[in-house]
Write a structure and sequence with these properties.
- The protein folds into 2 domains: 177 residues, Beta-Lactamase, CATH 3.30.450.20; 215 residues, Heat Shock Protein 90.
- Helix content is 54%, strand content 16%.
């Protein structure tokens, strides 16, 4: 069984508030009803005492002269008229002599003359005992447990001479109708108050509790390693909860910056280690590469001007030069010097990748606005472009299209590639530009790492986005001298 104390604040605050409102409303209504009951009873008894004193003075002369008919008229006078006009009207009025016999009665058939009071019934017998025990001149209110009536006894006396007792009899139900009306009105007002306050309490309770629930959920996410802030606008006020939200946001941002810094340090250390390894390999590769370039130069001199041979040798030279510059890019501290990037380099890259595209039945479409030289190292930009297009070819679906848009304006060169295929998993995307990390089985993970190194050397930025079956790479390079 779930304890109410273990419920979420979304329910506990409104429920406790509702319980307090209901309890307060019931307590106030009950107090008002009880007070109304006391006021009605007090009004009835006060009215009866005042009536009794007036009648007692008038009855003194009638009893003294033994005028029974006159006494009867005096007792009947207050009972004339409709009871609904005067709901506090007595049920019966009795005039008793000194021996507590009935001298006159407002209802002689029910209580005949000269009847001893204690012989009427047990309740009247007890009334007789109580009247006899109270000789004081004031009007005592006689109300004893189990009685069906309320009695007001007034001495019939003048100048110390007491001739008997006037008893005004009220039924216990004399003011119940008025009391019921008051109770119903109080209950209706209480229900109206509940109808207004309960929805307001539920609304404000949830307005207070939901931000706390969101904050607790975000705190749990932080404990599990997900540095997530509560959704914006969850709590827009500047009270203590608002300050708590602000402090929580500052803490999450600080933890996120710390985590990013730690990841960057790990990546930097990893790249530095790979850089030192690749620098050693680059030195070993450059020696035979230089020999190959010298041999090609000698071969070109003996080609006797054959244009096909010279064109082929020129392409091989550009390829070997690109290898040399790529190897130089693997040396993080290297500063590669090369000719400017031109439109002809784009054609070379497209021609070099044509065979791979045909084998994979993928189309390469390049859109470029380059008409003149771009002040960036041609070999490095060619390598970046080739790596991105080759990556798109390997990741694209069969009969797919790899699109590339190259734009040179405002002293910036942007290269955007797009291909269809499976989305890059988040765990791979987080390490996309690290060596030996690839999003497909055929890749070795060095192409994008080399691309990242080149872009970093040139002072640019590279971004990747993969969603909805489309993967996009965007590179932005400042034109001018390579940094």
């Amino acid at each position: 069984m779930i304890s109410i104390f273990n419920l979420s604040f979304r329910y506990k605050i409104p429920l406790w508030g509702s319980a307090l409102i209901v309890a307060a409303t019931v307590a106030v209504s009950a107090t008002l009803i009880a007070q109304s009951y006391d006021d009605l009873r007090s009004d009835m008894l006060s009215s009866s005492a005042s009536l009794g004193r007036t009648l007692a003075k008038t009855l003194f002369s009638a009893i003294l002269q033994d005028e029974i008919w006159q006494a009867f008229e005096i007792l009947r006078a207050p009972l004339h008229g409709d009871a609904s006009v005067n709901p506090l009207r007595p049920e019966m009025i009795l005039a008793l002599d000194r021996q507590q016999k009935v001298f006159a009665s407002s209802h002689p058939k029910a209580v005949p003359m000269l009847t001893e009071l204690r012989r009427l019934d047990g309740e009247y017998a007890r009334l007789a005992d109580l009247v006899g025990a109270r000789p004081e001149p004031d009007a005592p209110i006689i109300d004893f447990a189990g009685a069906q009536r309320i009695y007001v006894a007034i001495p019939i006396a003048d100048e110390g001479a007491r001739l008997g007792t006037l008893v005004i009899v009220h039924s216990n139900e004399v003011f119940l109708d008025r009391f019921r009306n008051v109770a119903w009105r109080s209950t209706g007002i209480g229900l109206l108050v509940l109808a207004v306050l309960l929805p307001l309490n539920w609304y404000w309770g949830r307005r207070t509790a939901v931000p706390l629930v969101e904050l607790a959920r975000s705190t749990g996410d932080v404990a599990r390693g997900s540095l997530r802030e509560p959704p914006p606008g969850t709590y827009a006020y500047r009270d203590e909860i608002g300050e708590l939200y602000e402090a929580f946001g500052v803490m999450v941002r600080a933890l996120r910056e710390k985590a990013e810094l730690e990841q960057e340090m790990i990546r930097s250390e990893r790249l530095a280690a790979v850089g030192r390894l690749s620098a050693g390999l680059a030195h070993e590769i450059n020696n035979p590469l230089a020999g190959m370039l010298v041999a090609l130069d000698n071969f070109k001199r003996r080609a006797d001007g054959d244009e096909r041979i010279l064109k082929t040798v020129a392409m091989i030279e550009r390829g070997l030069g690109q290898i040399r510059d790529t190897v130089g890019a693997m040396m993080v501290e290297a500063r590669v010097k090369s000719r400017d990037f031109v439109a002809h380099d784009i054609e070379d890259v497209q021609m070099l990748l044509a065979g791979e595209a045909h084998k994979r039945t993928v189309t390469i479409r390049i859109d470029s606005n380059i008409t003149g030289p771009v002040p960036l190292p041609a070999s490095l930009v060619r390598q970046v472009l080739m790596n991105l297009l080759l990556n798109g070819l390997q990741a694209s679906t069969e009969r797919g299209v790899v699109r590339c848009h190259i734009l040179h304006e405002d002293q910036r060169l942007s290269i955007d590639t797009e291909n269809s295929g499976r989305d890059i998993p988040p765990e791979v995307a987080a390490h996309m530009f690290e060596p030996f990390v690839s999003g497909h089985e055929a890749g070795h993970g060095l192409g994008l790492w080399v691309t990242y190194q080149i872009v970093s050397q040139l002072g640019g930025q590279i971004e990747v986005r993969s969603e909805g079956g489309i993967t996009r790479f965007r590179i932005d390079l400042p034109t001018g001298e390579a940094k």
